[in-house]
Give the backbone structure.
Amino acid sequence: MSLVEDLRGARRRFSVEFSPAHDEATAARQWRAVERLAPLGPLFASVTYGAGGGDKAGTVELASRIARSTPVRPVAHLTAVGQPADQLAQVVDDLLAGGVRDVLALRGDPDGDPRAPWRPHPQGFQHADQLVRLALRRGAESVGVAAFPLGHPESPDPDTDLRHLLGKFRAGAGFAIAQLTFDVEDFLRLRDRLAATGSDVPLLPGLLPVTSPRVLEVTRRLTDGHEPSWLHRRLDPFLDDRGAFREEGMRVAVEDGRRLLAEGVPVLHLYSLNAASNVEALVGELGLAHAPGGSCRTPVVP
Ligand code: FAD
């Protein structure tokens, strides 16, 4: 079955995101995380591309290793940043040769300053829809794209952004992963607006347990500083108590996850930050583990 078919049939599942490691110690820790999470049956494991200065070749390497050494389906992110179309085609070919069949096609942001004006490579792509077409032409099985619950920051308004998301689906994208948001309602609104257009393309919400002040900082960057004041009201009292901060951050993520599942969202995309424990805890609390053969394990905590 293709990834899109799997996504369409999925109930109470999760996917997990990794980023290429910058050093050997992180790579070793990350691989231990991959090995610990694989038996929980993620629907796929995605590997970011060049995000935060990450090593781009590392994406091909890690995604191919996941394909080779685990039963988990890897999805490689790919961006159009700083590369001509022929090099991007080569990356897709390298992924396919490494056993990676599925790609998340993104425009990306300018290297160095993500908020600088976007300038495509002269022989490259202006927008992600072009990369979707390229990946499919080269033989990728399923191609996903990014979606933005609050509208992409460069978009004049959410409706324009939604039109462009639909354009990416018309280009052949078969699923979308939404940008991290702390208000479940933001995601649900996008899901409903998308459904109102007649689209039934699977849309996954991102979920990141904010279990330390460092993670809060990461999320602040990912959400363009849009973290809500209620999150601060819940977490700030624990800034000097790591254990209590972690517990409260996990409680927030579990509440969000439960709400999404109760709203009928079938698959949650969990950010691992290259470590297993938070994802493992969330998967247990939410009952998202999936034993080989198809039966779901029961939640660790009801
Ligand atoms: P696009 O779809 O090209 O959209 C960019 C802007 O152009 C939007 O305002 C959109 O409305 C508009 N637009 C889109 N299509 C058209 C069109 N045909 N004509 C006119 N306007 C158009 N970045 C990384 O560097 N590496 C990663 O691994 C990575 N992973 C990500 C994963 C997820 C789930 C998400 C949500 C984002 C990720 N990003 C990553 C960040 C992403 O690259 C940036 O947010 C980037 O600014 C937008 O990428 P996009 O693919 O949505 O671009």
